[in-house]
Amino acid sequence: MSRLLIGNRPSDDLVGTWGKAAMGWWAQRLFWFVRDGDVLVLPEAPDEAFLSYVTELTGTDRTSLTVVVRPSGNRPGDWLLDPELAHRTQQALTGRAVEEVFALCPNESVVELARALGAESAVPGHLFLDQGGALIADSKAVFRTLAAGSDLPLPEGGVCANQESAYRVITRLLRTDRPVILKKEFLAAGNGNEVLTLTEDIKVNGAGRAVLLSDDPQSVRIYLNERWDWLTEGRRHRVVIEEYHPGSRGVFAEFWIGDEEIALGGQGEMVAEPVADHSYLPAPDLTHDQESALMTGGRKLCEVLQAMGYRGVLSADAIVPANGDEANHSVLFTEYNGLVTGSTHVYHLGKRLAGADYAHDRLLAEYVAWPVASFAEARKHLENEGIAYDPAKRTGVVLLNSWRDSPGVVPYCLIAEDVEAAERLKERLK
Amino acid sequence: MSRLLIGNRPSDDLVGTWGKAAMGWWAQRLFWFVRDGDVLVLPEAPDEAFLSYVTELTGTDRTSLTVVVRPSGNRPGDWLLDPELAHRTQQALTGRAVEEVFALCPNESVVELARALGAESAVPGHLFLDQGGALIADSKAVFRTLAAGSDLPLPEGGVCANQESAYRVITRLLRTDRPVILKKEFLAAGNGNEVLTLTEDIKVNGAGRAVLLSDDPQSVRIYLNERWDWLTEGRRHRVVIEEYHPGSRGVFAEFWIGDEEIALGGQGEMVAEPVADHSYLPAPDLTHDQESALMTGGRKLCEVLQAMGYRGVLSADAIVPANGDEANHSVLFTEYNGLVTGSTHVYHLGKRLAGADYAHDRLLAEYVAWPVASFAEARKHLENEGIAYDPAKRTGVVLLNSWRDSPGVVPYCLIAEDVEAAERLKERLK
Lengths: 430, 430
Description:
2 copies of one chain form a homodimer.
Chain A: E1 2-6, H1 12-15, H2 23-26, E2 39-42, H3 48-58, E3 66-69, H4 83-93, E4 98-103, H5 108-116, H6 126-130, H7 134-137, H8 140-149, E5 157-160, H9 163-173, E6 180-184, E7 193-197, E8 209-212, H10 218-231, E9 239-243, E10 249-257, E11 262-272, E12 276-281, H11 288-308, E13 312-320, E14 332-337, H12 344-354, E15 363-371, H13 375-385, E16 396-399, E17 409-416, H14 419-427
Parallel strand pairs in A: 1-2, 1-4, 2-3, 7-8
Antiparallel strand pairs in A: 5-9, 6-7, 6-9, 10-11, 10-13, 11-12, 12-15, 13-14, 15-17, 16-17
Domain ATP-grasp (chains A, B): 144-367
Pfam families (chains A, B): PGM1_C, PreAtp-grasp
GO molecular function, one term (chains A, B): ligase activity
């Protein structure tokens, strides 16, 4: 028996070409899930220095792993569906049955590859995924429908399939002291979000840009005419429009939905400046009410998705409004993600390195970018400074991925006692 | 307290302008739901002859009803959102609170009108509907995802968001002895369906047309290039592609999903020639296994939609394949409809006229078109022939709507002991 780990990105149906150029690098977060004997399917050859680094840290036998890489050449079509890839994967399995398929982005292509290997039923939720499930489990529009249907607290807003609907929702919400956020249905990490505001006096995070409108409602019309195609990916998708809460904290609770059980994976805070910059797991200093509301709502969403046939990771995202008396809701839910998120590998490695109960006495502080000359340089610096992760102390710096040439950075995770200790570690990265 | 009945059609987001020209006529099926004291909101002035006919038959006091019609003139925008309509409806309510909103097509416009009347919470499932729920509860694509997610029996097939996906599904399924059906995500009564076939030797029902392809897979490419915009309404929607089962029977079970209970409304058979032509309620001669599979699957879908927050009518459609040994499935589910269907008013009037248990000893045979010169002419003919519905005998002909000028027909329902008795009644319509 063998596990099959698939390093795929969201399909073009969801996000177009967004992130496609860097998908080989991006997919390497998959390594943090690796166990002895796994077969890995990757869009590009792995950075061996990074793969060795991960297997050393996690005590995995590198030689027990088999890596399958898609055929070279700029071939048209979804690389997961290339018959040559299925052939190579079949060979890599050397007759072993597939007991589990774990994909970064579970969708119908993953099911189709698994089917070619006779392992369709090893994909969690394969029946749901094979019939367009990823278009539901990743959609910010469907999220809003389901969250509202369960009466979870949400920012005021709507799901818009046409410009008139968008115009009505925007003009109903937008005030000088109340900006509005528009979200593409499927994009991630704030990159598909824009904030509309009537004043420059506003700090925006969680969105790629802010657009300053005049009082004249015509400026909303002009904005929509200008941006509708962008917002909808050429009218393919819907747009979520919500009241924007400046200064709110972004938090999440991530679960694994199985056939019977729903298990908490981890919870944390995402800090966007203005788009995803760093995160803390667990979220520091949540009040009991905030954490309880996040968990209760997150579990409720999982129960609904479970009833619908989805299996796998589900992250429920919410904001803690700066003005806490927001209709007495301590959190407002903002989206879900039915895929391996930018936090899944972080709490997985946290558990592997610092123990399943790391959250009791450790904080994971994940940063997307350490500007450094190379991966080797990064490792050397950690050694020289004596701040590489130390299993005995259960503190130190972990490099989360290989060096990314543009813009020349390595993402990393600080494992420390608390935010202050993490800050001190971070300063030693120079 | 008062009930508000809304005679709206599916929104342009779902079906474009399909059926828009006839929406005033179409909306009059709403009359079969009327009770004393109701306020009706209609896109056009009702045909008083038909409204009186319905109130007489159902024992409703016509003078207790208030009819609100949208302002005249070809105004742009969704007529339900016209502030003048809300104003007129408010006046019609004369201070009475709205205890229930019943709309033919529950969606966010219905919620928005109700909100303007302070009656948002009187719309069943208003939280779900207000956030784009109609785009989920009416979608053939989402249906397939959810039905598969519950492991219901389905025709082989897939949900396609792009041409490559469609090409793969079609070529996987299409054989000389196995045609394929493509379905628009939101259209109704078979009008958004096309069958692809490799042979002319096939009888098609349930689809607007059949397309004869050659053996060369290029013909699938050409077909998709030609029809993709039509199939997707300009790339806005997904396409469902399934194995087509010639000669199968189309059946349905329709439920009401409440907060707690799920209640059967009625079940029946739809006969398409080639698109919706007539229906029988209940479906004649279903085997115990067929009926049981239809009910079990239909209830399962209702449970999922209930968990998602939907409330209201849900019709589960299925086929009984001509070749019953189809992987031992007695029925295969083909779509759902979360709105008042073309059958809802039929079993409602059946219950009102022939009793809640009509299905024990009566058959409702509904036909979409009786070619006749006028509504008055139709009534006169029924009287002259002595075949107008007779409450004492619990048999006879009921006219389902007013006369439709193009093509000059009245839809009707035969209430009889069985199919043979209904056929005899039908012959007397000349």
